Amino acid sequence: xxxxxxxxxxxxxxxxxTQNFNLEPLREEASSRKYFRISTDEKTFVLVDNSENKxxxxxxxxxxxxxxxxxxxxxxxxxxxxxxxxxLIQDLGEHTLDAPSDVDDKEILLKALKQLSLIYFCxxxxxKSCTKNSLFEQTxxxxxxxxxxxxxxxxxKALESLREQLVEDxxxxxxxxxxxxxxxxxxxxxxxxxxVIDFQDLNVGPIGIDLASLLxxxxxxxxxxxxxxxxxxxxxxxxxxxEADEMMNHIMVALSHRSMRxxxxxxxxxxxxxxxNRKKDIxxxxxxxxxxxxxxxxxxxxxxEKIL
Length: 308
Description:
Elements: H1 3-16, E1 22-25, E2 34-39, E3 44-49, H2 54-69, E4 77-80, E5 86-90, H3 105-120, H4 132-137, H5 140-148, H6 153-171, E6 175-178, E7 187-190, E8 193-196, E9 203-206, H7 208-215, H8 224-238, H9 244-271, H10 281-296, H11 301-307
Antiparallel strand pairs: 1-2, 2-3, 3-5, 4-5, 6-9, 7-8
Protein name: Aminoglycoside phosphotransferase domain-containing protein
Domain Aminoglycoside phosphotransferase: 23-230
Pfam family, one: APH
């Protein structure tokens, strides 16, 4: 038994009171965390190994308290190690909602937006807020990606101007608590209720961020009529004082910025030999940038289309 596995099994045995369990690795995520399904004769759990980033574990535990206080459906945390390396949490099953589901898209979106409304009411006074610098830095790696794709000096300057414009537009949006990765791979149906997972990046940010993640996810293309319907319901049910057209503009700004951030982040992962199974998603996120820039009538759209 290697040292890492022994540390996992020793801690787990001390928590659940038995050495009679099976340990199964779960899917790789775009983070340094590792996930395992733990099966005993009576119950299953999910074990999270934060060996490379214990700060994320602290953020997860802190965010979970805020979300519970706001009545958001999240997995229960049963135990965590003193050094925060290990956490034992509720097992919500096999499939996130990016996999085929018996639940129709409208129902999923409405259930998700209901949870998003509850996230809005988290205590934002004690959450870290996005800043101009942090938002601008998030898309820095995208510029490097574009250079590697053969963009010339003038095109890079135009994209730098776009990065600045998007940040200014984001700063003009209403700032509220946001999940920061509110897409279907971070949503699960458990006992007919929708649950939110991977919420450790909860902070205060532009209102368009989570709506862009959900409504214009890279693997999902919803009919325009469905998007308009669920967005209208969400604005009304959340008590937001904003017109649907203005909200859609906010979403498209956030979609462009978010997709640029993801392309740059993935590109860095790939260069380090990580998450190579997600290479096919680069074109999908570039297409989402094109969608956002086209809606916003940004001239830099032509540069992204050339890369695509």
